[in-house]
Amino acid sequence: MAVVAGKAARVAARLKGGGSALPGLVVERIDPRFLAHALSDLPRGIVVVTGTNGKTTTTKMLVAILRQHGLRVFSNPTGSNFTRGVISSMLGQIRLGGQVDADIAVLELDEAHALKFAATVAPTHSLLLNVARDQLDRFAEIDQTAELLARLAEQTTRGVVLNLDDSFISRIRQQLADGVDVCYFGVDPSVAGRLPELQEADVRFEDAATAPEPTSDDGLLKPSDERSFEVVFGDRSVGPLALQQRGLAAMINATAATSMARMLLGEGFDEASVVEALRQVRPPFGRGEVIDADGRPLELVLVKNPAGFTVALGTYGSTPVASMIAINDNYADGRDVSWLYDVGFDSLRERGVAMASGVRAYDMALRLRYDDVVVDEIEPDLGEALSRFLTVYRDEPKRIFCTYTAMMRLRRDLAERYDLPEFGAETTA
Amino acid sequence: MDASGDDGMSGAKGRINLVHLYPREMSIYGDLGNTRCLASRLRWHGYEPVVHPHHPGSELPDDAHLLVGGGGQDSGQARVEDDLSRNADRLRVLVDRGVPMLMICGMYQLFGRAFITVDGRRLPGLGILDVTTQGNAKRMIGPVVLDTAYGDVVGYENHSGSTVLAAGQDPFGNVKHGSGNNGTDRTEGAATANVIGSYLHGPILPANPALADALIRMAVEQTGASFEPGEIDDNVADQARTRQIRRLLR
Ligand SMILES: [Zn+2]
After folding, report:
1. What's A64's domain CATH number?
2. Which chain A residues are Cβ-neighbours of B206 within 8 angstroms?
3. Which of A4, A6, A239, B187 has the most CB atoms lying inside 10 A of its own CB?
4. CATH fold label, B15-248
5. Nearest CA of chain A to the CA of B168: how many Å?
6. Residues of B noted as catalytic
7. Nearest residue in chain B measured CA to CA from A137
8. Model-level pTM greater than 0.90?
9. Distance between CA atoms of A2 and A41, rounded to whole angstroms?
């Protein structure tokens, strides 16, 4: 009964062009155990990927690695990482008995929803990426966010992969149930000096607990240059390989995905397949996606919290190009823009910022002023700003840093202008 | 941007000691932006700012001209309480001397008379501002517009404590949009002598330059000189503020 009603709602929502979470809402009302039942019999289990930054990229990478190994993987589409979104995306893949037709599920869930999800279905595995401040309206404190992740780990039945270099995550080990496997992912000591650029120091205190010594079950990132790297497990290694997405953060995401895959696949883990899979992963929508704009590359970079913006500036700052920053303050962006003052914009000083846009365009410009970054133009209207930016800088490479709802709007305009696939179209595979 | 350049005059008007209380523990949600704003504006006005980060266990400088503090997590607040009570007398001396202070959110609560926890425990504060805060489960979150002595002020509140002013305690402002101290009496923050407590992040100063300059004026007067403002182009700050006001009071 529930399945039929949900499918009907899904068709209705498509016709209206509605959001991806609506049909799930209908099913959840009808049968709260729907989710538990649908995922109950997956032979290889249910993997939850969570943490503040990098969920979408890491999930995509893990799914690609598992598929390359021949598994049939169910996953929720990008940007729909709530329980309801999971249900929505299931409806197309459900067998007659109401169960999902796959070997394994890999689900991207945000911290609060991961816990809600676990209350219904215990994950067999979880991959915990990092903790940083995000969406302050929902999670007031970083301590609280860390607590949510610890509780998720406690409810995981078979195996947990933890971030060795994030003390909030690595110390979760002490809270795991007996018999649950633990592995870590992290960076090789040779790049440990670059970690601060990925973490916020201001709200972290020195931690008495020291990080554990990595073993040959733990994956360590060893970059050879800006683009290529290996993931080292003791005396074995995956790579060298280069990703399509740039930067240290993406390499760490690949290391996390590889470590989780190795735990899941055990004997069946094949280094060459991992390399093959990771090479082909395209940056998710808006996460360093490169669009061909009149023959010049336009990079679209989603920024949603201080750690993420800092990483993005670190990743792209070495190659300054014409830049636009678009800041909205809708619910999905985080309504408070205070966090812009926890990001240093020095790397933009030399080239300046061509355009500040979004509902909080003037606040962004004001923030830049305090870092002595010159802003050429301020235009709150996103459509107007994009069009000016593309025209004035037509013949050079460009980059746009934007918050979530600003990205949705800009991506839609760009899709129309340059005939790109619509959001969601790439996730049906 | 004109006034930000080095015109050879920088710092010529005198040195101002700016103390940021507990920048590690108590400056979540961009409150460091207030320090950054004051330091830059001092420079643009022709003064030389010297920023002293005050960490638990270190000495508060005697010649402080201006103090700022921000909000923190519970774990951060717990880490500063001892240091704050150790420095209570010195802080009161500075208050009596008329040293301007801007205390946001968690530090505003700690500058109050007491904090009553959800389970009824009474934690004494410094008592510099005559306010009492009651911890409660409901968080007051959202954009704010205030009517203050410095004109309309915009910011963003995010607090679970509900604060009540004692009789005779002036608020910092009256709420035109948002919750303010407690969501019922339309007051926001508290002001005594040159001390301002407020829940407003945003951070509060960059988009409200009149407030920033009022603090700077009082700080300069602490040196015995009178404030000679420089020329600052505040068009972007004014736009940021008035657009928020228009949007929220519509
Ligand atoms: Zn606060």
Report:
1. 3.40.1190.10
2. 341, 366-367, 370
3. A6
4. Rossmann fold (3.40.50)
5. 32
6. 105, 201
7. B141
8. no
9. 18
